Amino acid sequence: MKLKVKMVLNSKTNIEATFEGADFQDVIRDAGVLLEFDGKCGMCDKEEISLVTRITKEKQYKYTEFLCRECGARQPIGKYQDGSGYFLKSWEEKFVGTAQ
C-alpha cells in the first residue's frame, strides 16, 4: 500500500513524500512524523519552519529536526532504536551558550 503526503512547511516550501508499507497501519506509522506536525512552532506559534539535518563531525550521527526561523526553537525527529520508523520529540527552546 502507498500513501502520498503533501504538506506546507512554510511560506516558501512544500514537502511531498510517498510512504509504502504492507498495510494501512505500516504506512501511517511511517508517515506519522509528517502527519503529526501541525506546521507551527511549539514555542512562539509562528509558521516559518525549516526542516534541517545536522551531521556530527565524526559523521557518526545524523540529527533531523524542524527549526523555527523566528525564535530558533527546534523539534527533533527521533528514530526508533530498532530502526522501524521515526517520531516527533518535544519542542526545545533555542540553545544559548557554549557546549561543554
Query: How confident is the prediction overall: mean pLDDT?
Result: 90
Question: What is the radius of gyration computed over CA atoms, rounded to a whole number of angstroms?
Answer: 15 Å
Global shape: globular
Helix content: 10-25%
Query: What is the H-and-E element order?
Result: EEHEEEE
Our count of helices gives 1
Instruction: Please indicate the percent range of residues in DSSP E strands (runs of 2 or more).
Output: 35-45%
Could you please describe the fold and organization of this structure?
The mean pLDDT is 90. Helices cover 13% and strands 40% of the residues. A four-stranded antiparallel β-sheet has the order 3-4-5-6. The protein has one domain (2-88). With 100 residues, it is mainly beta. It has one helix at residues 24-36, and strands spanning 2-10, 13-20, 49-55, 62-68, 74-79, 86-88. The longest helix has 13 residues, at 24-36. The chain has one helix and six strands, in the order E-E-H-E-E-E-E. The chain starts with a strand and ends in a 12-residue tail after the last strand.
Task: Record the SSE blueprint.
Layout: E1 2-10, E2 13-20, H1 24-36, E3 49-55, E4 62-68, E5 74-79, E6 86-88
Antiparallel strand pairs: 1-2, 3-4, 4-5, 5-6
Keywords:
mainly beta, globular
